[in-house]
Amino acid sequence: MEFNADTVREILRDKKLLEIFEKVIDKYTRGDIDEEKFKFLKEEIEKMIYKEKMPKKSKSLDLELISNSMRILNYICNIVNIQPFKGKRAIIVLHFLKDLIPFLECCRKCGLEPSETLLFYKEYLYPHKDVIKDYLESQGYAIYSLDSIDVVLQSFQDIWQRNDKSIFVLEDGGYIVPRLHTDFYALGEKTIGAVEQTTKGERRDKEIERNQGLNFPIFSVAGSRLKKEYEPPHIAREVRHSIEELIRRDLSSQPVLVIGYGDIGKEIAKELKDFMDVTVTDKDPNTLAGAKSDGFKTVESVKEGVKNKFLIIGATGETTIGRSEILAVDHETYLVSASSDQIEINLKELEALTARKEEIRSNGKRIGTKHIIRGTNNAVNLIADARPINFWYRESMPDEVSDLVMALIFVTAIELAQNYERMPKEVNTKIVDEIADRYEIARTFLEYRER
To answer: Hey, what CATH class is 63-227+401-449 in?
Structure first.
């Protein structure tokens, strides 16, 4: 099991990646990691190499325009006169959208040091990902793909455990916190707390809390009143627009199944009901009864629900479409995810069932993959490759919505960094509501809207 060191050194012009490469080689040589772990780390580094070789599109950003669009965030940033992040390290997993730049700038004003910050991005087709990445790297941030999370955390654990600086986590999806309680316990011991902004991430954190207990407090923005009440209708609208833009078929009266009638799924069903034939399914019978009361057709089983549908939308944040459901769908059915990551559809089982694949393109853009199912010749159209459709070439939400959410994450992070020692080691949603009220985020939002 060997690397071609000269080739790798030539390709990895990024000094940070080269340092990781050298550390892995050194650990393997000294026998600190076994053959299986080395194989895994080698594959992760090869992914990094491939991404470094990919051509990047050149774009520019109007930083002043982006900053001015974040009105609430900038207002709060300008009135707080504290530096709670000073002397601390940060591990951050947030979407690489334009709003990330003013968010991080506000964090810098509160003491965050780019050189002490580890940023992960998801492999979504964000419209400005490359230029945002280039800009933030020029500011001194260490930036890596989330696909390489384990090899990167291993490297930084070796570096960061040598001194006493504490760590805080801001994340979208529950990637870091579970790892800090298992494989990267040394990093976890230095972690003072985390802020989570998705329901999926909150579920993962609560599972850790139930099974072994948490080593630090977690503030859940996902369950906050402000985010739950204001964000879902806008996400649903973006999901609809993305479906219309990518699929480009006549959707009128077409049968659609919405899987999950939670905050997002409910709004998606409402958004589509005026022009499509909507059926809803949910594993919770009480929630399903609510959907029926709201006037929707309902079905208890996902396997039954997927039959005779033109479009199927997963909005649960869990895996809901697997082998049984894929074999039950009709020819040319479209599958769409409206939840985080590639979790809604079991890609491993879909790949195992697939005889061949074809790229799906529309208006000159790749929009997904057609899977021809072995033994049936049914075609299943996987839109956005099972990634959340509202991030496929899109900013996901209007500026005023992302402004409100980023402002909420910002003030929650400030509270965590200031008061973590007094906080119970649990997943806490109630405190986020209290923080939002204290900073008058909703009131400030309404005052801007009234102008």
So the answer is: alpha beta
Place of tokens 């402004």: 403
Task: Sketch the domain layout of the chain as residue ranges.
Answer: 5-53, 63-227+401-449, 228-391
pLDDT category of residue 10 using cuts at 50, 70 and 90: very low
Q: What is the pLDDT of residues 359-395, one digit of tens each?
A: 999 888 899 999 999 999 899 999 999 999 998 887 7
Sign of the CA dihedral with 389 first, then 395, 400, and 405 last: positive
Alpha carbon distance 187, 56 (integer Å): 33
The tens digit of pLDDT for each residue in 42-71 reads 666 665 655 554 444 445 677 788 888 899
What's the start-to-end Cα distance of the chain, in Å?
64
Q: Do domains 63-227+401-449 and 228-391 have the same CATH topology?
A: yes
As a dihedral over the C-alpha atoms of residue 91, residue 92, residue 93, residue 94, rounded to 10 degrees, the angle is: 180
Collapsing DSSP to helix, strand or coil, 427 comes out as strand
Instruction: Tell me the residue length of the chain.
Output: 451
Domain 228-391 belongs to what topology?
A: Rossmann fold (3.40.50)
Q: Residue 352 class from Cβ within 10 Å (0-12 exposed, 13-18 middle, 19+ buried)?
A: exposed
